[in-house]
Queue: 2 jobs
Job 1
Amino acid sequence: MKILVLGAGVVGTATAYYLSRDGHEVEVVERRPGAGMETSFGNAGGLCPSFAGPWAAPGMPAKVLKMAMQSNAPVRFSFWPELRRLGWARKWFRECDAARFRVNKLRMQRVAHYSYACLRELMAETPIAFDFHAGGVLQLFQTDAECKLGNIAANALAELGIPHKVLDPEAALAVEPALKHARVAVAGALHLPADASGDSHAFCQALAAWLQTRGVRFHYATKVDHLLYSQGRVTGAETSSGPLTADITVIAMGNQAPAILAPLGIRLPVYPLKGYSITAAVTQGEQAPNMSVMDEHSKVMVSRLGNRIRAAGMAELIGDDLSLKAARKDLLIRTVRGLFPAGIDYEHASFWAGLRPMTPDGPPILGPAGWDGLLLNSGHGSNGWTQACGTARVVSDLASGRKPEIDIEGLTLERYAA
Ligand SMILES: Cc1cc2nc3c(=O)[nH]c(=O)nc-3n(C[C@H](O)[C@H](O)[C@H](O)COP(=O)(O)OP(=O)(O)OC[C@H]3O[C@@H](n4cnc5c(N)ncnc54)[C@H](O)[C@@H]3O)c2cc1C
């Protein structure tokens, strides 16, 4: 079959891989000059199935409100009454109770662990390199209260059979010796040895280049204007380079997916959640982290990507604004410096902002959308790098008329119909 993938972020590029592997003729349309240039460009790099979970959690609305009142808090939202945001926030609020949290968390865990297994397989099947590091992730706690929450998380991990270890401060420093230089308190940690990290932009670039040698066509610098459709069937897309037709069109456009689907009457509850990252060179290896460290106090994740570190965090519900605010860069650097004061070239750190394509409940939206010839692979939120390969494989299975290897209950658009 001829299949058009719209968007070459980590989700679209991975989708092109599985579709091509399944023998389809694949074309990818991307408005940027290369793959992985938007949200997939500067994320924290965490491949973290062990703690993949929704942003909608018990206690979050109060926490978000409290933080929004503080100046330069890591969480911020606009009070401007934008209808799109209000509708999304209302749905998000409904997902914040304990029962909904459990359902959503389990759905995301199902995708994330499957996805990690798919990524490992993809790595064995292709020659691509992307600063992959399988050293696990350390969730760091600075206070006793955070340690208590860590213990609750550990119980949940035990219930799900996910490898983990609760560490006292001494053991935490043994796992990540660079923390010995920290200026903040290390009260304890949770080690997730099965998690990993890698550069998703490098992944996209390398995979896209490899796919091009295998016959997949990437139309870069080509904007999708609208979908082509008639009589209940999507037949392709009108682009800045002219029409492209296909048997199946896959929507992997991150935050732009709702706008492209709206003329078809498809409402995708995806809203951008802005975050920031810095990337800095490592100057003294033993002073910089060797593994990914998730600082639960600031909610900033620091990953080692080869001879660089990437630190990312913050959450702003302010629309499509991608402006870079110096105060946010300062806050991020201050936070990371507290953890790793030396061995990193903070002076020349590059600064980036991206928009997580968030669903209100957390899981992505995969598969059918009520139109023949159309499949969704959207709404990957704050876990898109972790979930990309698994969701791509599910979508390729659906396109090929096969039953996906994981249950897609709760992962399709249907869940919002009720
Ligand atoms: C600060 C931050 C930290 C994060 N950390 C992590 C992490 O540690 N681990 C993790 O798993 N996830 C993380 N994420 C989330 C992850 O980055 C996203 O979920 C993921 O990148 C989404 O991928 P995507 O392909 O859906 O979207 P994108 O990467 O945005 O790709 C969509 C593509 O569609 C293209 N497009 C859109 N409109 C059009 C059009 N009209 N015509 C043509 N092309 C179009 C865009 O140019 C873009 O390339 C983080 C995100 C942020 C912002």
Job 2
Amino acid sequence: MTFNAFEFRTVASIEMAWEGASRLGERLVALFGHRRVLMITDAGLVKTGLVGPVEESLKRAGLDVVLFDSVTADPPEEVVLACVKQGREAGAGIVLGLGGGSSLDVAKVAAICLGSDQPLEEMYGVDRVRGTRLPLVLVPTTAGTGSEVTNVAVITRDGTTKMGVVATQLYADHVLLDAALTLGLPPLHTAATGIDAMVHAIEAYTGKIRKNPLSDRLALSALPMLGANLVKACRVPSDRAAREAMLLGAMLAGQAFANSPVGLVHGMAYPLGGFFHVPHGLSNALMLGPVLRFNAVVAAPLYAELALAMGVSQGGTQAQQAEAFISFMETLMEESGLPRRLRDVGVTEDAIGKLAADAITHQRVLVNNPRSVTEEEMRSLYRQAF
Ligand SMILES: NC(=O)c1ccc[n+]([C@@H]2O[C@H](COP(=O)([O-])OP(=O)(O)OC[C@H]3O[C@@H](n4cnc5c(N)ncnc54)[C@H](O)[C@@H]3O)[C@@H](O)[C@H]2O)c1
Ligand SMILES: [Fe+2]
């Protein structure tokens, strides 16, 4: 067997430690020396009481903390600019992102803006970032986007359009996986972010262009771990083993899709977030069934492999095994309690044309999809999900 050429990248250091966030200050001092830390999070997380102890840990270690807690979901560009302004005025030397994908994405872009003079509007797209960034540490509190180990940040421009900044500089210096931080994540959010992670693994495994032996192994490790623990983590939120498996699985899926990027499910999910503020994971969950069936025309052999990896194959033809995989994912989403149709989350039927017109512009991800897609086919997929 021969291999196609490939390149694999990830972050410099990953630490997994239950309640490790209470010792984060010592780690930062050991890694970067004493400096002023810009801690980026959202106000909802501050209210849960998760942020205070982390801030205390930093202060105990002798670090100055500048708190930016104005991140909002699907973070708009203005939030990034406000964050950078605060960090610059305070003379921040380290950037710490603490929260879900929204806070981590803001932290990633802010670290770059604080380390270089390049205007943000020039950074959108692939490999358009010049220069370096400030030291960057990421601590996820959802499991999740995998943003802690990806080279992508998704920012909302002009109120509705989700745009990606994709650049090597976005790989963090240090990632802490502390699943104790995810214990309070409400069941529906646990389900939505968990499905997001599973979609990352599925789309990385079926990616048309950059799928490679390492992204495959990561996706194949992540999927069974996530599939076996998602409903458990929703039903028994305090289950440490389930929470740790979800956080680790989401990170592995993140490493997979950082190197073999996502496809049509994400391309069609972005406008649902942009126009209707449907949470990212839920947007993916709503589109997953129709897109899996659409892609199965060409991707059935790969879906059959995923069925085997997840232990849900009953044998039979590739098409039957692919169907077993798709049915498993649909049942999992039913059991997770998530809304199952676009009409249930405030999307209106007359918006389908607008959604498809936006989705077709996300060629950055659509090029990776195993099956090419037209705008008319997207309208049909949105109708199926409606
Ligand atoms: N950069 C990437 O690689 C990547 C990948 C996928 C998604 N994303 C982006 O990530 C964003 C979505 O991130 P998300 O789904 O993690 O949610 P989020 O960051 O938008 O957070 C949603 C809500 O969950 C709350 N929350 C977070 N952790 C909590 C906890 N432990 N306990 C209680 N509440 C908690 C937050 O306060 C917030 O109100 C989207 O903007 C999406 O586009 C980025
Ligand atoms: Fe995602």
